[in-house]
Amino acid sequence: MKLLRNLLAATTVLGLVFVATAWRIVPSWLLTMLLIGLSGFVAATALAFLGKRAGYWLGMALAVTVLAISLPAPAHIFFLTSGRVLESGIFLVGNLLQIIYVAAFIRYILLRRRLSRGLSQPP
Questions:
Q1: Spatial separation of the C-alpha atoms in residues 8 and 16, rounded to whole Å
Q2: Looking only at Cα atoms, what is the longest distance across the chain?
Q3: Which keywords fit this entry according to its UniProt record (predicted)?
Q4: Predicted model pTM
Q5: Residue ranges of the domains in the chain?
Q6: What is the pLDDT of residue 54?
Q7: Which of 14, 19, 41, 114 has the smallest C-beta neighbourhood within 10 Å, fewest atoms?
Q8: Confidence at residue 123, expressed as pLDDT on a 0 to 100 scale
Q9: How is 29-95 classified by DSSP, letter by letter?
Q10: Which residues of the chain have pLDDT under 70?
């Protein structure tokens, strides 16, 4: 749980950096979408730190959404190929955080399920 909370917090901080960087270069409709996404991460982080399971589930939904939108985006590939260090760094670190979150969340769910079935002890 602590890892998941920390990943959500790191994603939120990186999201703030991302929005601050994108503020002057993206169209207003895209900035609005970025702010909505950032608001979702702020909410997920707050809920997780308050001990609410909904925060972790919201974080999972947001992580999958970010990966689905971000990875195939041509502009993000352009950042990597054109040597734009700050933008590439945000893209790479952000997606890495999402991948780690998804893996940690799945691990947490499987462990919780295993413990609830009483299978925590080896046969």
A1: 12
A2: 59
A3: Membrane, Transmembrane, Transmembrane helix
A4: 0.87
A5: 2-116
A6: 98
A7: 114
A8: 45
A9: HHHHHHHHHHHHHHHHHHHHHTT-HHHHHHHHHHHHHHHHHHTT-HHHHHHHHTT-HHHHHHHHHHH
A10: 119-123
